[in-house]
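Supplementary Text 2. Reproducibility record for the structural model of the 635-residue chain.

All settings were left at their defaults, and a single model was retained for analysis rather than an ensemble. We include the record here because the model underlies the residue-level annotations in Supplementary Table 4.
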Amino acid sequence: METFTPIYAAAFIATAFFVSMILTRIFIVVGPRLGLMDEPDERRVHQVPIPRAGGIAIWLSYLIIAWGGALVFPHLSGIISYQGLVAFTASSSLLMVVGFIDDRQGMRALLKLGGQLAAALLYFSLDPSLWGMSILGYDLPLVISCIIFTGWCVLLINAFNLIDGLDGLCSGLVLVSLFVIAGLEFVNGRGSTAVMVLTMAAAVGGFMRFNLNPAKIFLGDAGSMMLGFFLATSATQIGGEKAVIGSIMLPIAIAGVPLLDVLLAVWRRSARGHLQKSHGEEQSGGIFTADKDHLHHRFLALGLTQRKVAYVLQGLAVLLATLCFVPLIMGGRGLVITLCGFVVLGLFGIRHFARVELLQTGSLLHLAVKRRNKRRGLRSFYYAYDIVALTSAGFLAMVIETNFGARNELGVWSVNYLLLFVIVQVGSLQVLRIYRRVWSRPAIREFFLVAVGLTVGGLIASSIWAATNDDVTWSDFRCGFIGAQLAIWLVLLPRAIPEVVRELAVDSKHRKLTKSRDGEKQVLVYGAGKMGNLFVDYLKNSAPAEFEKFKISGFLDENENLKNRMLQGFQIHGGLDCIEDLKGKYPLHGILVAISDMPEEGMQRVFEVASQSDLKVYQWQADLTPLESPLGESP
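Retained model, structure tokens:
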């Protein structure tokens, strides 16, 4: 296969870098004259108007080098794909027009989405190599190929468009993605394609010279959309010999951080829209509503500078790409390492960076609890779900026990056994009266009873099956027991989600003292007894809006034996004597008293300590108070 020689490759890449630097410098001056200025507002981080024409410079630089190389050096015609270059030039031109209009005067979200779809469809129609796409090793029909390609392009276009909110952030993430694609192309023996990808990387690098904090020019919507589109089209046919693993890991390797930001945005805005609808408020645009809760905004709220935030998110992109490369290099054996890494990152991310999404979801759960008219539909959902879950658990148990029927001398590889297992287990759930409960605030006792009932049900199903056969074998009972344990997880998982969400919501917002001053009022709860425990339960199950501006950061209690212990995940720091020391380290706002029948002298001491440390005092109570009858009689 003909490829670029090192000299030509270096010439293409170096020329693209210097042409991009020159054009970017020109567009810093030309951008304002074209009306391409990014004005500061409440959502912006910058404080002065900045041109947003850098994407045009990158786009022109790449096309000049690509077309110039193809025309000036005819012998490269077998290396540079004219077909792909024509497709990208035509479709990206359409996308740049849409972006230019949006950068200059704004554009409605649906119209902008239509332009993105049109660009993706135009590219697909001009590049016949995409008409025979395959995914997970299967050849796809033309219509399905078109839908998948178009959806993939639109997803990456918007992912990089949304993440473009800080100096050097989007362009840096694009560079990481381009190097990943180039690396995969080299590994798969397509060095020529890798050089063209690195040519775009060089063009982005020339622009970054002026985009690092403090930035002199921005990409603009035209630039971020074009780069997302280039990544989508460049990565479409990458998969190599390990096609199955590559098809799964490739999107994360190419655009893990922007895709995560999109996922959180859709989750957050959908939940917010449902809440507005539930409260009778006017919905503000659904998932297309702009907000200031993106990943880079959250890191800025922690006190990091723009440059540090960009480095952190770009480092995360490198880490995700590295995890994705492990199975691509090692095959299925490396998949375990990657999955463990994703689990660790996911748990850390949900706990620390999904606070807004968890709080919005917690509010939805709180509303669902209050709406009795929704319970019948919820029970119907649970019933249908349980049948599917029990069927899946029984089938997996048979697969494990018989190795897909290879060891079927024991007889459990049978549709009849699966039907018996499901019927008996549904009967067990009915006996437990599981569908008469509202699984909104489940207790450990309820989970335990369901687990025991399903285990007993699995053994009963096995006993009935064994009784119908001449020989009783341990395989019958192993299959029933395995199926029951799988059923426990599948049946209880959706019922545990509300409690998990509430716990994570509390953990992400409260429980820890922080030195950041992000507008939240850090409060310590005074009283780690019965009322303190009750307050934590209230905090998890009440509407989050009631404590939206408060951050419950721990407990105070005069009992020396409780010092440095934990109360439902909250640290007990000590008594009132430790306030002065804590106030010197953390920006405390107040003390919330959670003690019923607080003695007058005790309350007076709380006010004295609070006054000395410039803290506010709040009271939380939940008392049983006898009321006098309005008729003048004792109740």
